[in-house]
Write a structure and sequence with these properties.
The structure holds two protein chains of two kinds. Helix content of chain A is 69%, strand content 0%. By secondary structure, chain A is an all-alpha fold. Chain B has a single domain, classed as Response regulator (Rossmann fold), CATH 3.40.50. A five-stranded parallel beta sheet of chain B has the order 2-1-3-4-5, sandwiched between helices. The relative contact order of chain B is 0.20. The chains are: A mainly alpha, B alpha/beta. At the A-B interface, α1 of A face α1 of B.
Chain lengths: 251, 134
């Protein structure tokens, strides 16, 4: 009889424990479902955030491109020079350091490099004859003017450096700051090669466009004087077919 | 309602016997709207907190010890100090008898567990912190 009671007691205790365990399991499952709901929302929010960032980045580039087009509209000879230089520049940047190519400011700097030219009078900008020393001095203010135009815009801080230094030369004989070697921002050194590449391979009023091969040879001659040898080397790694394709895409 | 609504409350009262849920809601709402966050672990505690600082929004779990959410909701509605609050019932499943009972007790909205944190945030955002019912 006592044994039966004891047995009953153990059974009751077991049942109680089982119920307690089941209740705990139910609570844990509830928490898991709740955490899953959070994870789903986080995933959703992340995807939206990523799409918005992409959208924002694109609208920055579009705005910058519109500004660039406004500058180029004044100069019928260069046409889509800035867009081609930006494409060549990004290709070079990719060959040197992917981070440089991925930084949206690199492209913006390439596109905006001549923004300062909006302050140069038409008479000088369009002059067919050689510039007088005074006119040349005024023309050479455009990097600093551009740099000042873009002051106070945090998302263009890096791009601004290209604008200021795009006429510096590796040997220190460029302007406006006569920076030398690696003191010149890398993006500006990359730009210098891209700019020469496009200038040589585009029709100008005073001479016809030349081939990519001719441009490569001319740029190679400037390696270590006008251009950073590392960037010249990067150009060697890009095929004519690729350069041709980039040019065609811009039209 | 004859009772005047409390003036511009900026308190959100979170009532659930599960500290995990309270913590989760509080963390989700932190620094999002200009609300003061208060917590309570059961219906009795909820009534006490609400009387001290009349809330703009109350998140109210239904199944709690001492005093359940339905009864707590009824009492909050009866007290002129807390009658104007937006009461959001936290339910385990939607559309059941429990919801009807909660509606009769004066609940405004239902948030079904497991709830979406974005829904929770939108709900609080839509109340804007001025205690107006959404």
């Amino acid at each position: 009889m006592t044994e039966g009671l004891a047995r009953q007691g153990v059974d009751d205790e077991l049942t109680r424990l089982r119920e307690q365990l089941a209740e705990r399991e139910r609570l844990v499952a509830e928490k898991e479902r709740q955490l899953e709901a959070y994870a789903r929302d986080l995933n959703d929010t992340f995807k939206k955030e990523r799409a918005r960032t992409q959208e924002l980045r694109e609208s920055y580039v579009h705005t910058v491109r519109a500004l660039t087009n406004a500058v180029e509209a004044r100069d019928p000879y260069t046409g889509k020079h800035a867009e081609r230089v930006a494409a060549y520049g990004l290709e070079l940047a990719r060959a040197i350091d992917v981070r440089l190519a991925d930084d949206p400011q690199s492209e913006m700097g390439f596109l905006l490099h001549d923004i300062g030219k909006i302050a140069i009078p038409d008479g000088i900008l369009y002059k067919k004859d050689a510039l007088t020393p005074e006119e040349r001095a005024l023309m050479r203010t455009h990097p600093v003017v551009g740099w000042e135009i873009l002051a106070g815009i945090p998302f263009l801080e890096e791009a601004r450096k290209v604008v200021r230094h795009h006429h510096e030369r590796w040997d220190g004989s460029g302007y406006p700051d006569r920076l030398k070697g690696e003191d010149i921002p890398l993006s500006a050194r990359v730009f210098a090669v891209a700019d020469a590449l496009d200038a040589i391979t585009t029709d100008r009023p005073y001479r016809a466009a030349r081939s990519f091969a001719a441009a490569r040879a001319a740029i190679a001659r400037g390696s270590g004087t006008q251009f950073d040898p590392r960037v010249v080397e990067a150009l060697e790694s890009i095929t004519d077919a690729r350069l041709e394709q980039l040019r065609r895409e811009i039209g | 309602m004859s009772a005047p609504p409390p003036a511009m409350s900026d308190t959100v009262l979170i009532v659930d016997d599960d500290p995990f849920i309270r913590r989760l809601i509080a963390t989700t709402l932190e620094d999002v709207a200009r609300f003061e966050l208060q917590e309570a672990g059961d219906g009795i505690e909820a009534i006490e907190r609400a009387a001290e600082a009349p809330p703009a929004i109350v998140f109210l779990d239904i199944d709690m010890p001492r005093l359940d959410g339905i009864e707590a909701c009824r009492r909050l509605r009866e007290d002129p100090r807390t009658a104007g609050a937006t009461i959001v019932m936290l339910t385990a499943a939607s559309g059941d008898e429990m919801e009807r009972a909660a509606e009769e007790a004066g609940a405004d909205l239902f948030l079904t567990k497991p709830f979406s944190p974005l829904e929770l945030l939108r709900l609080v955002d839509s109340t804007g912190g001025d205690g107006a019912r959404p």
